[in-house]
Amino acid sequence: MAERTKYILDEADLPTQWYNVVPDLPEPPPPPLHPGTREPVGPADLAPLFPQALIEQEVTSERYIDIPEEVRDVYRLWRPSPLYRARRLEKALGTPARIYYKYEGVSPVGSHKPNTAVPQAFYNAAEGVTRLTTETGAGQWGSALAFACATFGLSCEVWQVRASYDQKPYRKLMMETFGAQVYPSPSDRTAAGRAILAENPQSTGSLGIAISEAVEQAAADPGARYALGSVLNHVLLHQTVIGEEALRQFEMAGDTPDVLVGCTGGGSNFGGLAFPFLREKLAGRMNPVIRAVEPAACPTLTRGRYAYDFGDTAGLTPLLKMHTLGHGFIPDPIHAGGLRYHGMSPLISHIYELGLIEALAIGQQECFAAGVQFARTEGIIPAPEPTHALAACIQEALRCKETGEEKVILTALCGHAHLDLPAYGAYLAGNMVDNELPDAALEESLAALP
């Protein structure tokens, strides 16, 4: 009998709870601080931006949170998502390693982002909110929130980073098809955007600027709230359905990962896969090396400073203790738009400081080479973001080829690139360059930390 290539759970196996890693950590993460008083933020400080249910999830000390049945019902459109064994890639590399990937590109918008967009829209609608504002980089998050808002009858406004708005027109069309209004950021619709444009009319934008615009709009309207696609605790919480399913699928496969690899921008895809496995590691039930991979052009974990900083450019958000390149940092317009954020999730930053995970940065040319090899062997063209994880997987698999180790490697393939093909066009035409971050530019940005 042929060995299995894919491991598929039944709808009945859909997780009923999200997992909160905080109670299992050796020490709790530092709290967010109020930008004015520099005192820890309380629920009332977050109420203009988020519904009460999400504020409670942001600060909870509960290990598990029940997933509402209305959310699970929408999840069933695509979850549980498949786990694949990358046998053809293994063969092409000539490695004794076994490579698995958890594929989130089966969602309605082709990425992992609806795992949190759906509950965020649900909780907002349940509390009478009528309008959500948000930012998006490459457009995966904006597409996911537009889909979720359509599902629960909310209006949706998206500020898309100008570089991606120009690079990825089909993302804008997807968002508009789901009913969202999409604006390039920086825009002239907000004070934050106008200030940036006055300084630099040709600004390519950043996630920090787009967050400022979306937050400004939400705070000014009592019927509106803001939704974030990564970074915060409740977002990473919702994504743990990925890792919980993967644990069940590894039981089906009769295997255990030795190395877990995920790409990191704000941290939601990485945390979603890694946190349930980290729970098992902390409990002594398995011992995988957990590795975060980021772009060399925006290397928050590997070169950023662990410090309190604003989550946005204009300084409208609470101060977060995180690995940061400085809230004014404008990354080069690399093709992995979803990884162009100046800070890393405070929770992942804290876990990195505790020494529980590793991190490395890779240039985009090596990443796209990995993406092309994966497409030509496994048949899926990966989004630019997970090519970073695939490049690190291939590095690990080739080390196993040298040593003869039969390691088991797991990665999160968090989306496909059907709407990101111009990025592959740039790579295939030889027009892609690696954007290194000069030390002087980094020091200048870090000098402005609050």
TrEMBL record:
Q: What is its quaternary makeup? A: Tetramer of two alpha and two beta chains.
- The record's EC number reads 4.2.1.20
Q: Which residues form the Tryptophan synthase beta chain-like PALP domain?
A: 77-415
Its gene is: trpB
Coiled coil stretches, renumbered: none
- Which Pfam family is one of those matched by this entry? PALP
The source's superkingdom equals: Bacteria
Which Gene3D superfamilies does the entry mention? 3.40.50.1100
Task: Name its co-factor(s).
Answer: pyridoxal 5'-phosphate
What the protein does?
The beta subunit is responsible for the synthesis of L-tryptophan from indole and L-serine.
Q: What keywords are annotated for this sequence in UniProt? A: Amino-acid biosynthesis, Aromatic amino acid biosynthesis, Lyase, Pyridoxal phosphate, Tryptophan biosynthesis
Q: Which NCBIfam families match?
A: PRK12391.1, trpB_rel
Top enzyme class, one word, equals: lyase
N6-(pyridoxal phosphate)lysine modified-residue sites: K113
Query: What protein name does the entry list?
Result: Tryptophan synthase beta chain
